[in-house]
Structures are given as C-alpha cells and as structure tokens.
Design a protein that fits this description.
The complex is a heterodimer of chains A (392) and B (522). Chain A is α+β, with helices and mostly antiparallel strands. Chain A is 41% helix and 8% strand. Chain A has 16 helices and 5 strands. The chains are: A alpha+beta (392), B mainly beta (522).
Chain lengths: 392, 522
C-alpha cells in the first residue's frame, strides 16, 4: 500500500477513534505533510538542541541581577531557573512556593522578579529546549529529545489510528479489557526515554510491532515514525511536573452558608474584616484558588486576578523598639536574635542592637491567620472559599 | 559522662576499622585532627569531642579565611578534611583547598551530560582516592593529590531521570552510593562499588521482590517496580553489628497515591543492611503510604545510650514528616515515637510505633491543609547528637501548606499533584532521645528560611544557622545564643570542626563561600 493511500485510510480511522477518546472534531486529518518542511524543522530542532557549553546563565533583562541574587545563590544555582520556561500563573506558583520555603524577597522585589521571569523565561516555544523536570529542575539528559508541536500533532494522529487501543489515551498502557489489547506503558518505556528523534522508536517499529490496522509497523514511513516519536515524547513531558496537568483543578466544593457562619462565628474573621468594607466584591477580584491561598496564607501573592493587572501587596509587619526610654516604631525591616531594623514614618532606616535592655514589640497584622491554621478543618477551608467566592 | 563512656567502645571500633587498609598512619587515630567523612564519623552524631572552643570563650571566635567558588550553585556538601586539606563539591565540581589558609590546591570539573543540579553532598575518601557522584549518573574517582580522574562508572540511567547527589560512604572495601530522582516512576536503590576497580558489588532496591510478604504493601507488581524510594540521604554504620543504616525517599507517583494503596514498602523507610552483600536485616517505616513527598532520608543517628537503666544500641531519626523515632538498631524495634513539630496528617500510632496516615489529609482535588509542608519539619540538613548532654539537635520547621491532586487519571504518573503556598517558622530544637520530649527550643525570627545542619561539640556548644544569614553558637544545655556572625548568605550545609596546628577550627558553607573560624591563641 502506498503512503498516500495508507494516510487516507489512517485519516478515516483517526476521525473515528478521536471521537471515541477525545470528543468530536478533536483531530484534524489534513495529511499528507510536507517532507521538506519537516526536514527543515528537524534541522532547526537539532541545531537548537546542541548540548549547552559552559555554565548556564540567566538571559539578559531588567531584574536579572535581582533574580540571580534571590533565586540563584542560596538554595540553588541560576541554572535551575534558566532551564525553565513557563507562563505567568506557573511562575507565580513557583515563586510563591519558593517564598514559603524561605526565599528572601520584598513585595517590590516580588513584582520585579515576576516581571523578569514572565518576560525573559516564557513558555518554551517550538524548537527550543524541552520543558523537563519540575520546580525549575532540569531532569534528564541535556540532549533530550525536543518536541516539535506540529510533528507531535501528526504523531498523535498515527497514535490514535494504530496504538491507542492497547497503549491508552495518555500512552500509560492499558491493564484492563481483553489481554490482547493490554499494551505496555509507553511513557515509562526505555525505547521512548532513550529515543532522540526516532532513533530507537523507529528501530523498534521497523523490527515489527502489532498495530491496530493490522498493517506491518515497518510499513510506516521514516517521517511517520519520527512523528510518532515526537508524540510519545510529548506524553513523557505531560507526565513531568512542568506538564499540563500541573495545575489546581477545582477548589469550589464548600458550602457558602456554612462558610458565612464560620466567618462571622468561630473564625472570628469579622474582628478585622467586613464583607461590605475591605472584602466587598472579593469574589470578583480573585479566582477561587487565589481566594483559598490568600485567606490561609495572606502573604501569598495571587494566582491570577480576574481582569489582570498587578499583584496584591501584603500588609507589612510593624515594630516598636524602646531603647534608653525612647520608642521608635515603623515598618519592620529585619529582626533576628541580635539586631532589629525598621523604616519609621518618615521613611528613615533605623537599626538597633537587641539587648536585654531593648524592648522589641512586633505586630504582624496577619497573626490571626497564622493562629487559625491550627484550628481550621478542611471543611471550614472549603466553606470559606465558597463564601468568599459568593461575594461578587 | 555515663553516656559518653557508653559510646566509647563503638567509637574505638569505628575508628580502628575506618583506618583499615588505609596507608596514612594518621587515619588510625580518632578524627580530632580531621573530618574524614560526611558525618565526621560513622555514627552520624556529628559531635566534635574538641573543647578548645567552648561556652566560656566562644565570644572570641575569629575569622581565619574565606574561600569563594566560581561555579554556580550553593555549597551543600559537608567538606571533608584530611591531612590539612579540605575537599568539597557543588554539582560537577570538586575542590581541594588548603585548610590552613583557604588556598586552592586543585579544582576538578566534570563535563556534564545533564541531570538535576540541585545539590551535591560531598565526597568520600579512601586511601589516595576521592569519590563523588555527578548529576548525570556517574561515580567518579579522583586522585587526592592532584584531582586527576582515575575512573568513572555509571550508577544510574539519566534517561529515566535519575541523578546523583549523595556523598559516598566508604565502609571497608565498599563505596556505598545512593541515587536520586523522582520525576518519573522508577525504583530507588543503593549500591556498592569496589574502591579499586569501580565495579559494582551489589545493589539493594527499595522494594520487596514479587512474592515477598511485603510485596502485599503494593496493589500490583507493576506499581511496586515503579514505586520510587530514592536513597539520597546520609548512611551510618555500626561495625559491631556490621550494618549500614539509611532512609529511603518518597513513593511514586509522588502526590497522587490512589493508584498505589498500601504501605508501599520499602519507600519512606529506615533500613538496615549488611554492607558486604546488600542483604536487608530489618526495616521501619516512618511514613507508610506517603503522599506528601516526605522522604525519610534524614540521618539515622547511632546512639549508644540507656533506656530504663538498660544499655541499648539505638538509632534516632527526626523525620521530615514531623515525627521523632528511636529504634533498637540491632532489631529495628521501636523504642520512642514522638512529634517534634506540627504534624496533622496521622490518625494515631500503630503497634509498631509507625504513624497511621489519615486519608482525610491525603492530597485532595480541592486541597487539604497539611502540616508539615512539603519542605518538611526536617530535611536533608543534618542533625547532631551530643553524648555529653544526651540531646538530639535539629533545625526544624513548623509549617503548613495545601496539598492538591492535579491529575485525576486512574493511573497518575510522576507527581500528579503538589502543594501550594504556605506558612512556616524555623525552630532549633534539643530533643531528649530517651523520651522524645523537647528539652529546649529556640525559635528563629523571620519566616521559614533555609535550615542549616547542626554541629554539637564537647565545648557545650551547638553551631547552627538562622533564616537571617547568621551563623550562631548556642549553649548546648540551654539554647542561649553566645556568638554569631552574619555571613551574608544562609548556611547551606552543616558546620564541621577539627584541630590543626594546636588550634580548633569551625568551618561552614554559606551559598558560594566556605567560611573558616578559629580560636586563636593556645
């Protein structure tokens, strides 16, 4: 059977199986593809995927030095950051997570760091280094297969036609149904993990492997085998921490009425907050995951505000220092066992040695939130989210 | 002093065996003049018997030198000091530095093929040779005198996203190495190599064999063989029992655990194995069916102590999940289980002394508020135990975060979820090993923060770091801070101490710099 006829049959099967697994009209069947275009793209990919030389650096951009200092010195090097590219929400989640683990950063610096990361390290486009690993970690080999979106989309078509029955929609294998259709987990397969642009996947298919159509796998063209490899690497990428499943699904499961009762009752929230004052319309301001994180951990920056624009600024901790009978108060800059520093109401920086004769009174406006962490049940938490969400 | 005497027999055996087959005569002596392995000795106590620096004079501790590296990465390695030379690492790099003045003697760079470069814990040395792991899955042997490569051997498969990070431990003629990597669902293991040829001697996988009774702790052979349990912490050794001790990491998939119901042995376990053949003697599981990434790889510290008037060979771990365990290290039987930090994830303690995970605190699609957070109540920064005070020192955290399920697939893989946000407080704690109760605690101001390792000394001192970049000496009995220096970066490893030219030194890494402090004078 010639390639064109084969592809025509393939297209029909794909449409059928696509309905079965992904919903109607989920697969385009505009085959055949341009081999010249594919070759050009592969060349581009291979050029881009050269192993890195020398220590990786953060790309230039406003805020680079700050990011280098805050995110590339204490806990890990800058290569952990440089190896990652992601969207705004994912960067926000990453930075928040790092702050909760001790990254030292002021609110102003937070915005600068976010601006730099979002503009200088955007999601990886086609033919750029692969998204690998999680939490900014570049797992796997430097010469990893770089997925070409278009080739992966074509490979998906072949996969649906020839592989999906036995290997499943996510290529994680099938362990139920007729034994003949129980195929291996391809994401975990060394044939795929060791593959680069079809090097081992093509060899495997050429050797002969059962396909849904009943055709010989060796009959796939060289380009089709490479496309299939791209699709399978894409599935490996999906499984990693940077993959598309790496996001909060739905936190809106609570009972708004019970949330209201907790808010005005046991939670003691009305001591500081009012739904007609500071919290008026808060449900329209933040998405539910942000609402959840913000009342639990008020120093968390939002995961994305409806309507966009800027980041919320946390209320600062204030401090009053009394030394030699004189009290100076202001916004806390730094407090440890030995020194305390602050900015007073004039914006002047003041620092003191902490001794037995110096009285330091710290006031964290969010202390009540921290105290509540020991008290909430998870039901309380979900109910409050539902209640706050209802305040539109 | 009773407890110190009780430990002496072990110390003597440890140090005499340690020197076995090693030409430099100095290695036969107790290591007050060196810091010859990751934990200072095989016990994992990280206790220095030196007292020239002590609670009376520590205020006069002086800076001796600093050495700043030029490669990216923080110094998470514990330096090894031998014959006046310090050896330490960051991923792909090894330095030999003159311990007297901080002058570089040599610097070795490994040409990397990839792997996670999050940290390297340091080197192991044996005779004329030095051994370290690389992120791209190699065990490399260098010549101590010039840093020239002798050989390198693969220890894991980079394409399965394993990587190397641990400090090799040398026991007799075994180079013991563990592996890291929890991005894909692959099994963890620890293995031994011949120090001369580099050939692998044995490998122990962190899972039972199909058919073993413990295999029932997994729903299927497939889940078990893809169940994780990386061995990336430090290993300790009791030469009398001829057992090495280490902890194993999280099961896989990491967060989405519904597809692997059961205890998931031998992930999240403290394990005793024979270093000559890799056969397991016993296991104890701090976190059965973990779904919070709470690797139980914290140092299993060997304590020769007394419980109810009985001399006991014990092992203690302050685990990432917030629980403190004391075990009989001959049998693995539990002696003490207590909480040393906020922990809301267990519904009780079972007959074996293991916490029982509460399914309500498994990660949920809409979130579960869990203490501790993913970073844990403790993590890899090593604790310390002082036989003088009988106290176990740990730089701990009280912390909350919300754990989510991201992937609802019936067969999740990789992580399938994560935690988000959080609140945390750092607290240095001194725990009485006999009861698991906290004798004193010292809360650090400032939220969370990187937590350093700890060093206790016979000078009644505990050295540790706070979240404000201070390197601090505290009274070991009371927790009162006595001396500090702000290093401009958080401590990134654990301090060490040794004597050189008649003076006691304390050295520590903070970010890209090694700091050396000395008590001048006599």
């Amino acid at each position: 059977m010639g390639t064109i006829q084969y592809e025509a049959r393939l297209a029909a099967k794909v449409a059928m199986r696509a309905n079965q697994y992904f919903g109607k009209n989920s697969v385009q069947t505009n085959l055949p593809i341009s081999k010249a275009l594919l070759a050009a793209m592969l060349t581009a990919i291979c050029l881009e995927a050269q192993p890195r030389g020398g220590p990786p650096r953060l790309p230039d951009g406003s805020g680079r030095d700050l990011v280098q200092r805050v995110c590339g010195t204490t806990c890990h090097g800058p290569e952990i950051v440089a190896g990652k590219g992601q969207g705004k929400d994912q960067w926000l989640a990453t930075v928040n997570s790092m702050v909760s683990r001790g990254a030292k950063i002021s609110d102003a610096e937070f915005s600068q760091v976010m601006d730099y990361l979002v503009s200088s390290l955007p999601p990886k486009a086609m033919a750029s280094p692969p998204q690998r690993g999680g939490g900014g970690l570049t797992a796997g080999a430097d010469d990893n297969h770089v997925v070409d979106r278009a080739a992966s989309t074509r490979g998906r078509t072949i996969y649906i036609a020839e592989c999906i029955t036995c290997h499943g929609p996510k290529a994680r294998g099938v362990s139920e149904g007729p034994p003949a259709n129980q195929g291996a987990d391809v994401v975990r397969s060394l044939v795929v993990l060791k593959d680069r642009y079809g090097s081992t996947v093509s060899a495997f298919m050429k050797k002969g492997h059962p396909m849904q159509s009943g055709n010989a796998s060796a009959g796939l063209s060289a380009d089709q085998m490479i496309d299939l490899a791209h699709f399978l690497h894409d599935k490996v990428g999906d499984t990693l921490r940077s993959g598309p499943y790496n996001k909060i699904l739905n936190v809106l499961t609570g009972d708004a009425k019970a949330g209201q009762a907790y808010f005005s009752g046991a939670g003691g929230c009305t001591k500081c907050h009012s739904t007609t004052g500071d919290l008026k319309g808060v449900g329209a301001k933040y998405d539910p995951p942000t609402l959840q994180q913000k009342f639990l951990f008020p120093r968390t920056q939002g995961f994305g505000r409806r309507g966009g624009g800027g980041f919320a600024t946390s209320k600062p901790v204030t401090v009053a220092v009394t030394a030699n009978g004189l009290t100076v108060s202001g916004v806390l800059d730094k407090l440890d066992d030995f020194n305390v520093s602050l900015r007073d109401s004039e914006g002047e920086y003041r620092s003191f040695k902490v001794t037995k004769d110096v009285k330091v009174v710290k006031n964290d406006p969010y202390q009540a939130h921290a105290d509540l962490l020991d008290k909430y049940t998870d039901k309380n938490m979900h109910d409050i989210v539902a209640y706050l969400e209802s305040l539109k | 002093m009773k407890t110190l005497r009780a430990f002496l027999p072990l110390s003597l055996v440890v140090f005499s065996l340690y020197g076995q087959g090693l030409p430099p005569a100095k290695w036969q002596q107790p290591p007050t003049d060196s810091w010859p392995m990751f934990n200072g000795d095989y016990s994992g106590r990280r206790f220095s018997p030196l007292k020239k620096i002590n609670d009376q004079n520590v205020g006069s501790l002086s800076l001796s030198w600093v050495y700043r590296i030029t490669a990216p990465g923080a110094i998470k390695a514990t330096p090894i000091v031998s014959d006046g030379v310090m050896y330490f690492t960051v991923p792909d790099h090894v330095w030999a530095v003159d311990a007297r003045n901080g002058r570089e003697i040599w610097h070795f760079q490994w040409p990397s093929k990839g792997g996670i470069h999050i940290g390297n814990r340091g080197v192991g040395i044996y005779g004329k040779w030095l051994y370290f792991e690389t992120p791209d899955c190699n065990l490399v042997a260098l010549n101590l005198k010039d840093g020239k490569e002798r050989w390198h051997k693969p220890i894991c498969e980079l394409d399965q996203m394993y990587f190397g990070s641990t400090a090799p431990l040398i026991v007799k003629n075994h180079i013991i190495v563990g592996v890291s990597g929890d991005d894909l669902d692959v099994p963890g293991y620890i293995q031994s190599h011949d120090p001369e040829t580099g050939e692998m001697q044995w490998r122990w996988y962190a899972h039972p064999q199909p058919g073993d009774p413990e295999a029932k702790s997994w729903p299927s052979v497939e889940t078990m063989l893809h169940g994780g349990g990386m061995v990336w912490g430090s290993t300790t050794y009791d030469p009398e029992l001829n057992l090495i001790y280490f902890g194993t990491g999280n099961p896989q998939p990491v967060i989405a655990g519904d597809g692997r119901m059961g205890d998931n042995l031998y992930t999240e376990s403290i394990v005793a194995i024979n270093p000559d053949n890799g056969k397991m003697k016993w296991y104890f599981q701090p976190s059965p069916h973990d779904t919070h990434d709470w690797d139980a790889i914290q140092t299993p510290v060997l304590i020769d102590g007394e419980i109810n008037g009985q001399k006991r060979k014990l092992l203690a771990q302050a685990s990432r999940n917030g629980y403190f365990f004391v075990l009989d290290r001959a049998t693995g039987k539990n002696v003490v289980t207590s909480k040393f930090a906020k922990a809301n994830w267990a519904s009780g303690i079972d007959a074996k002394g293991q916490p029982i995970p509460d399914p309500k605190k498994f990660p949920q699609k809409d979130g579960a508020l869990v203490a501790p957070n993913q970073a844990g109540a403790a993590n890899w920064p090593p604790p310390s135990f002082s036989p003088d005070t009988g106290l176990f020192y740990i730089n701990s955290a009280d912390a909350y975060s919300v754990y989510y399920i991201f992937d609802e697939d019936p067969k999740p893989e990789g992580w399938g979820g994560n935690d988000r946000g959080g609140w945390s407080e750092g607290i240095l704690k001194a725990i009485d090993y006999k009861t698991g109760k906290t004798r004193w605690s010292h809360k650090w101001e400032g939220a969370g923060g990187p937590r350093s390792g700890v060093l206790a000394t016979a000078g009644n001192l505990v050295f540790a770091g706070d979240p404000s970049n201070n390197f601090i000496a505290l009274n070991a009995k009371t927790g009162e801070p006595l001396w500090h220096a702000n290093l401009g970066n958080s401590l990134s490893n654990a301090p060490i101490s040794f004597e050189m030219d008649g003076s006691q030194y304390v050295m520590v890494g903070a970010g890209d710099t090694v700091w050396s402090f000395v008590m001048n004078g006599k």
